[in-house]
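Dear Dr. K.,

Following up on our conversation at the group meeting, I've run the structure prediction for SUKH-3 immunity protein from Planomonospora corallina. I'm pasting the input sequence below exactly as I used it, so you can double-check it against your construct before we proceed with anything downstream. Let me know if the numbering doesn't match what you have in your notebook.
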Amino acid sequence: MGYELRVERPAPLTFAELANVLGRAGFEFRGSQEAGEVLARHGDGVHPVAVWDGALSGAPGSDWHVAQLVRVSSLLGADLVGEDGESYTLRDGVVEQVNGSAAYEFGKIDEILAAGPAVWSS
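The predicted structure tokens came back this morning:
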């Protein structure tokens, strides 16, 4: 797996709560209460966004994946945190990465989601 982002919050996340939020937000879930995959649609395709194994995390390959993870974490009242301690947030409709006092804007969430899961180039 590549660089991992984790959905974190003070109260433990239950599968029932996750399933409720995902269903209301239009995400799909494949798997069981113990382990599975969160999927999001774009066009005619369904794309993996995160994995569930008692905790929720993902290894984004595009801004679209980051935006989907930010969307899920916001709906859960949670933080999206990277391996290096940076956080990813949604502020005024803009997806941002915040690390200390520095912030990087990915762009407007609606535009990122509309563009789809184009993979980052190296």
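Two things stood out to me. Residues 64 and 113 are 6 Å apart (CA to CA). Strands lie at 5-8, 28-31, 36-42, 45-52, 56-58, 79-82, 87-91, 94-99, 102-108.

Best regards,
J.T.
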